[in-house]
């Protein structure tokens, strides 16, 4: 049996699949606090553990400072946020994200480290965690369907690797893509995907759909056998589709594709990693003048 490509393992059954995306930023985990620590929230707000358990069903786990920072920045409704070191978390905000310092000061409650660790699958170096309301599917579907579309939708066709999916959502957010749609069984809101995406699920529309349900628009499906991307201009309303790490594009997606597009690659190299393929393709689209601003 042929060995799988390097980004095919581990798959969605393994919780720890994030390739180099677990540390969303290269920023220090904690820095000395430089300014005054905003006051602790009022007494009725300081019983976070029961609140955590009350809200945990169906909520989005924001694991670490950067995920919480991004989620707040992009309008997430945060139900509860805890940290084992409030001064360090607010010092990070002061240093790296002063725009959300006040909001984080109002949200974050300090709990003992053991309490924090009991709430998350794997403690994060910043010892920050929060629960946010998952954006409504109806709202996301409306956003994905809205026309005229000014930025592409990224379609991951039956992805397997949670880390890849997170990295792609982060890319989509960075490039101002309309959204990320996955087909197949991977849950794009899985905590490991949210962790890999650094909380940027709130900056774009993320949903799982079948190929039949994809939004309208021309499908440019990425495949090494396609037409060289350098000869193409990708339109703003494109659906940019990428195959699974293991087996490439599914027959259903191929049947829906209007164009097959190849990324330049030397002979004898079989393929690129899924997330890097998305990065190159979004960059190619943006180089013609699409978002970001
Ligand atoms: C890891 S590759 C899939 C490799 C898989 N073994 C196959 O048979 O295609 C994941 C996806 O990245 C995209 N991709 C990777 N390299 C590409 C290239 N050179 N040109 C276009 N797309 C590429 C394709 O969408 C592909 O389905």
Automatic annotation (TrEMBL):
PANTHER family xref list: RRNA METHYLTRANSFERASE 3, RRNA METHYLTRANSFERASE 3, MITOCHONDRIAL
Pfam families in the record: SpoU_methylase
Matching CDD domains: SpoU-like_rRNA-MTase (cd18095)
Entries under SUPFAM superfamilies matching the protein: alpha/beta knot
Gene3D superfamilies from the UniProt entry: 3.40.1280.10
UniProt KW keywords: Methyltransferase, Transferase
Lineage: Bacteria, Bacillati, Actinomycetota, Actinomycetes, Kitasatosporales
Ranges of compositional bias, category Low complexity: 1-34
Keyword Transferase included in the entry's annotation: yes
Single biological process term from Gene Ontology: methylation
GO molecular function ontology, one term from the record: methyltransferase activity
Name listed for the protein in its UniProt record: TrmH family RNA methyltransferase
Entry superkingdom: Bacteria
Region (Disordered): 1-50
Sequence ranges assigned to domain tRNA/rRNA methyltransferase SpoU type in this UniProt record: 153-283
């Amino acid at each position: 049996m042929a060995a799988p490509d390097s980004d095919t393992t581990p798959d969605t059954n393994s919780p720890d699949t994030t390739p180099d995306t677990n540390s969303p930023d290269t920023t220090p985990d904690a820095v000395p606090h430089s300014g005054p620590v905003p006051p602790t929230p009022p007494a009725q707000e300081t019983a976070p553990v029961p609140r955590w358990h009350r809200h945990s069903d169906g909520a989005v786990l924001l694991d670490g400072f950067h995920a919480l920072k991004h989620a707040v920045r992009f309008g997430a409704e945060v139900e509860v946020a805890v940290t084992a070191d409030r001064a360090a978390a607010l010092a990070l905000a002061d240093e790296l994200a002063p725009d959300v310092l006040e909001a984080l000061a109002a949200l974050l409650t300090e709990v003992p480290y053991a309490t924090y660790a009991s709430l998350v699958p794997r403690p994060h170096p910043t010892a920050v965690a929060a629960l946010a309301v998952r954006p409504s599917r109806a709202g996301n579907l409306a956003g994905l369907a809205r026309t005229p579309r000014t930025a592409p939708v990224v379609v991951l066709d039956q992805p397997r690797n949670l880390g890849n999916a997170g990295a792609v959502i982060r890319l989509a957010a960075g490039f101002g893509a309309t959204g990320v749609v996955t087909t197949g069984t991977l849950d794009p809101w899985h905590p490991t995907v949210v962790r890999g995406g650094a909380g940027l699920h709130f900056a774009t529309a993320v949903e799982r759909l079948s190929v039949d349900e994809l939004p309208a628009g021309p499908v440019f499906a990425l495949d090494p056998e396609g037409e060289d991307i350098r000869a193409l201009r990708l339109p703003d309303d494109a659906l940019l589709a990428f195959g699974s790490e293991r087996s490439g594009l599914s027959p259903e997606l191929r049947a829906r594709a209007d164009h097959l597009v190849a990324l330049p690659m030397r002979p004898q190299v079989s393929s690129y990693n899924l997330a890097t393929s998305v990065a190159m393709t979004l960059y190619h689209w943006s180089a013609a003048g699409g978002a970001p601003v």
